[in-house]
Amino acid sequence: MSYAVLHAAAFALQAVVRTEAGLGGKPAALLEDRARKAVIVQTNASARGAGVQPGLTATQAMARCADIILRARSAAAEKEAEAGLLAVAWSLSPRVERTAEGICTIDLTGKAAATHLPHCREAVERLRLLGLETTAGVARTPLLALYAARLAQPALEVKDERGFLSPLPLSLVDPPPDLAAILEGWGLRTLGALTALPKNEIGRRLGQAGVDLWERAAGETDRPIDPCAPGESFAAALELEHEVETLEPLLFILRRFVDRLALQLANAHRVAAELLLELQLVDATCHQRGFRLPEPTGDADILFRALHTHLETLRTAAAIKSVGLVLTPARPLVRQHGLFDTGLRDPHGFSETLARVGAVVGADRVGTPWLEPTHRPDAFSLAKPADVVAPVPAPAILPPLGLPLRRFRPPVEAQVETDSQGPARLQCRIAQGPVRQRRGPWRRSGEWWQPGSWNGEEWDIELESGGLFRLTLRARQWWIDGMYD
Amino acid sequence: MRGSPESLAALRRLLAERFPPTAPRFAAVLPTGIAAIDELTGGGLPAGGITEVVAPAPSSGGQLLMLSLLASTRARRARAALVDGLDAFDPQSHEPSILQHLVWVRCRTLDEALRAADLLVRDANFALVVVDLRGFTRPALRSVPATTWYRWQRAVERTDLALVVLTTVAPFRPAQGPEQVEGLVGSARLRLNLAGTFQLAAFDEEQARLALQLQVEVQRSRIQEERRSA
Q: A133 by DSSP, 3-state: which?
């Protein structure tokens, strides 16, 4: 049997600090309301280095360290951090126990012994990327692994148990205060000194509590772990301590969410098919946006880019007070591309490019043109580009004639002199001069029964100076619809 | 502060050693489907490079050339993008079947067109990106920093993307006969000039036949030079 323990010291403080950008490495402390006033309950290494200790008030802490960052506990942030810790733990083994706040015990039974320490180091690094500084210990029993994790820099495997335990201070095994005082009186300060005494003699003098302490000091205490099951939902939410008005803090939080959820998806052998982003605003409104991914993926970078692209162009009416993200899991798409398949080379890149271009010109101005079933001039719609380009159908029986039109949107107002045959001279801001040849009129009308009806007389003209144009007479006004090119 | 010629030469040597020049890719071409152009250019427009098409006169066939390129990419079931600088593309002038592979970006300003093109040329899914800048005034086009064209060239040179930039001398200037038209895109590997202008009789002809009547002059071609130097 072999166990690993992942231990995040000052977990509640780390959970809060990891949700804000730019706080890494700065002195920080967690305040908690006690009987009369708020006192510091957890500190990070920088704060401890500046002399800030648990038990101080905020004023005392700021007197010792002017730059200290003080934060209150956040249940949502702790829940999110714990989810990250467990997700990393589940990447090592399916049997994981939520031992205590910031501590989880992992049953490594079945894994090759040589991989225990390297995998624990990877887990510590992965947690560091999730914003949690942790240590890892590997040993024969959960308790020994916990002791190792508390002392690790950043990972430690206990092979020689006696040699490991002997020099350690008695305080490591959490002796009850009355026993600690007695042992102090006996001159015992290390675990080795305690275990050098016979166990039954300790039992006779100190009772069962003494025996338990001796067994803990000797590494003989063993217990089964109480594994917890990973959740089926892939969601993250956080109520923000300070309302967010700019993009960067929001992206920072979403990156944390995405990294954790991607890991959770990987543990469950799933990928994300859809994302649902929910932003609660301070004016009590809610912005919700769903993203259907072009191809299900578990890649955190791709998931984050989908959110980033949307948020870059988002303007909310009020500041954001809470963020939520839900991923819809799906089975990974396993397929082999056909030899003649002309699907997208990079579906996610394509989707992202379209979203970015849509952000520049407007989402309704990008797409594949489709002609509408009507004779109305300039009637078309834009559709989402197809995932696969279909084979070319058989050519039309009647091949298209003439030059394509280059439309002026909106049409250009024109002054036209006419003779008995039709337009004879054109004058407008883009072209002018006598008409060399003309064809027409072609009368067009339709949908006269509804407001959007059209009715006009079209002419194709060639100017003496060159250039073929489409002229339209509508309601006694001449317009140039476009140039044939 | 100016560097001495010796130190500049040393810096160039150092850069040449650290970052040896790589041979440009020129094997791939995108056939236009127009025999005259494909013969002039050795098979088609260069993939992995920029082709500038200058349409100096109205009705010189720029849209017809674009139609041929769309048909060519459609036949290969490749994807094409059109950055339509002044939102002038008319889908009704085209067979619906040749538009199914097209991503049409309807821009309103030059800035929008340049930004959209900058994104599209970096996408690995396209075989053709056409940036239609006709209709913008010459001073506006001249105000585009030259670095833009070189950035696009850098973006496409390791890909199979054929980037076509359509420009004009001035909107709807009457044809003045053959002339040497100054190009805009400094990094273009191929610059074509649409020399002729169509007349009203063109309406009786099939589009495929009209494409064969396009009068195209090659103003610049670095393709042959690159092939020789390789």
A: coil
Neighbours of A125 (CB within 10 A): 14
Cα of B178 to nearest chain A Cα, Å: 14
Pairing outcome for strands B49-54 and B190-194: parallel
Q: How many domains does chain B have?
A: 1
Q: Which of B91, B103, B202 sits opposite A403 (nearest CB)?
A: B202
Find residue A33's DSSP bridge partners.
Answer: A38
The answer to whether residue B21 sits within a structural domain is no
CATH label of the domain that carries residue B63: 3.40.50.300
Q: Determine how β-strand A135-139 pairs with β-strand A3-7.
A: antiparallel
- Containing A405, the helix (H) or strand (E) segment is strand A405-419
Q: Is residue A413 part of a domain?
A: yes
Angstrom CA distances, A432 to A364, A416, A426, B122, B198, stand at 35, 10, 5, 41, 17
- Paired tokens of A136: 């890892």
Residue B201 lies in a domain: yes
Residue B63 falls inside a structural domain: yes
On whether residue B6 sits in a domain, the answer given is no
CB burial readout A443-470, b (16+ within 10 A) else e: eeeeeeeeeeebebbbbbbbbebbbbbb
Q: What is the ipTM of this complex?
A: 0.84
Of A199, A218, A237, the last residue of a domain is A218
Q: From the first residue on, what is the mean pLDDT of each consecutive set of 10 residues in chain B (230 residues)?
A: 70 77 62 84 87 89 91 90 94 90 94 94 91 89 91 88 85 50 83 88 86 85 66
- The answer to whether the CB atoms of B91 and A369 lie below 8 A apart is yes
Compute the CA torsion angle A388, A389, A390, A394 (nearest 10 deg).
180
Distance, in angstroms, between B121 CA and closest chain A CA?
10
| Number of structural domains in chain A | 2
Range of the domain at A181: 163-218
pLDDT band at A116 (very low <50, low <70, confident <90, very high): very high
Selected for mutation to probe chain B from A388, A460, A485 (highest B CB count within 10 Å) is A485
- The tokens describing A152, both together, are 């690790």
Q: Is A430 inside any structural domain?
A: yes
Amino acid at A14: Q
Structural domain includes residue A313 = no
